[in-house]
Amino acid sequence: MIMAADSQLQLDASWVDYGLIALYFAFVLGIGILARRSVSSSLDFFLSGRSLPAWVTGLAFISANLGAVEIIGMSANGANYGVPTVHYFWIGAVPAMLFLGVVMMPFYYGSKVRSVPEFMNRRFGPTAHLVNAISFAVAQLLIAGINLFLLASVVDALLGWPLWVSLIAAAAIVLTYTALGGLSAAIYNEVLQFFVIVAALLPLTLVGLKKVGGYDGLKEKITATSGGAEQLSSWPGTALTGIESPLLSVIGIVFGLGFVLSFGYWTTNFVEVQRAMASSSISAAQRSPIIGAYPKMFVPFIVILPGMIAAVLVNEIAQPKAQGGSPDYNNALLYLIRDLLPNGMLGVAIAGLLASFMAGMAANISAFNTVFSYDLWQDYIVKDRDDDYYTRVGRIATVGATLVAIGTATFAAQYENIMNYLQTLFGFFNAPLFATFILGMFWKRMTPTAGWVGLVSGTVAAVAVAVLSEDTLGSLSVGVLPLSGQGASFVAAGAAFFVDLAVSIVVSMVTKPKPESELRGLVWSLTPRSDYHQEDPEHLSWYQKPTQLAGVALVIVIVLNILFW
């Protein structure tokens, strides 16, 4: 875990660094205050009035994901496993983002639903809707806690505050601008945060590469470590998955990560989909995840590379690793910042880390308050009230979620590599939801009963694998299955997907489906393409056409995979 009050990790910040950080916070809060003026309805608060351009929602789409787990978790993975970590981007993200833009966003946006659970309600009915809304809300509170914990850890490293004080201070800033301006405040801050993150991590990467003698020097030093040359090739990634068989490791990465976890996260996770749904048109909504895919495929160069550099430069990691020990990989990026950056650049780097953590937490909180207000409170607790009432509920939910996240932040402390915890949560919540979504969207015979029974069964299957594994749930795991780390999460996700599919098919065959007349806009074969596409696509430039824009991105990511094979 990231240790509070670790004197070795104390960053030597000067007044220049503090000034830059204060300036950044002033911008963040200012955006929240300005966004407050544009909130006149619940649609403005929860979905920015569906009025934002594609480039804004596209950058927010990727920035919402570029949070604490992405920055700290992937740099930790880079230090631990090396180049195979790129699978989380080039296999486990970009293809699913392109699929979301080309295939699924027309259904989300065209149906005018306000959330992913609301789409579930229209397709499968209230029981599946309630199951999905509750599971999503719980997941966001847990993941927001991860972001908050890591954010507080940076504040602790900077100021030396006790962890609980750092947690409260960090939460207060995110709460203020999210409660004031709703999704618009979150999205515009995410655009700002994207550029601040790049400005922080790019110089760190370049300075680190110079220190180790360029990429060739880095390869030479990594080859001499205990991880060896395997850490310089993306395949078969046996160390990453924890699966000894190269063939089974590749299958785990391609199917468990690249299909089930990836598509489950990117295509059904309302945290991401919400950004695209705030766009001004169907075309803009489709382009949002596709635009986000372009910076996403290059993020490994400023996130994973610093972790790899830290593994050979930072004594606290390099020495225990050389001796076969277990370094605190979560601290890799902070150690590197401490060792390489001078004052001034240190302030930018800290601001970048704070930006990433706030972006991730704000994304979780803004998605939570929408689902809580629309899908739980309005549908099941207090119905038929005026619009202002539900906007107030959303603001109260924002406060409540932030307070709960302070509590869930302590769960993350149990994991030496935070990605293990996150992938476990994705296996529980995202993998079964994706199975239900994909089957229901392309098979009109799937019934409402199958929708909720499949979801519950898939989740139970994922939890069962985690409990039977060696260490996925810490002391709760019994060690019956020879699976550990992120490989166990891949297997759990695969189990959730297959069990959900099997149960859904069986249940559908013995229960009554919805009439076809009620499934237009919800099932692919029953929805005319004219319903959800631009009327005059020939008047658009190639970069405004989602399919062509996605095609170029797919070619680039294939080339990157080949180069780092």
The CATH architecture category of one domain equals Up-down Bundle
Distance between the termini: 31 Å
Order of helices and strands: HHHHHHHHHHHHHHHHHHHHHHH
- Catalogue the unreliable spans: 1-7
Basic shape: globular
Using the coordinates shown, work out and report the CATH topology of one domain.
Sodium/glucose cotransporter
Rounded mean pLDDT is 81
SS content category: mainly alpha
Name given to the CATH homologous superfamily of one domain = Sodium/glucose cotransporter
Describe the structure.
The chain has 565 residues and is mainly α. It has a domain at 15-233 and 274-416 and 539-564: Sodium/glucose cotransporter. It has helices at residues 15-36, 42-47, 54-65, 68-81, 87-90, 94-110, 116-124, 126-159, 163-212, 214-223, 238-241, 246-268, 270-277, 282-296, 300-313, 315-322, 332-340, 345-381, 387-408, 418-442, 448-468, 485-510, 546-563. It is globular. Residues 1-7 have low confidence and may be disordered.
Condensed summary:
With 565 residues, the chain is mainly alpha-helical. The chain is built from 23 helices and no strands.
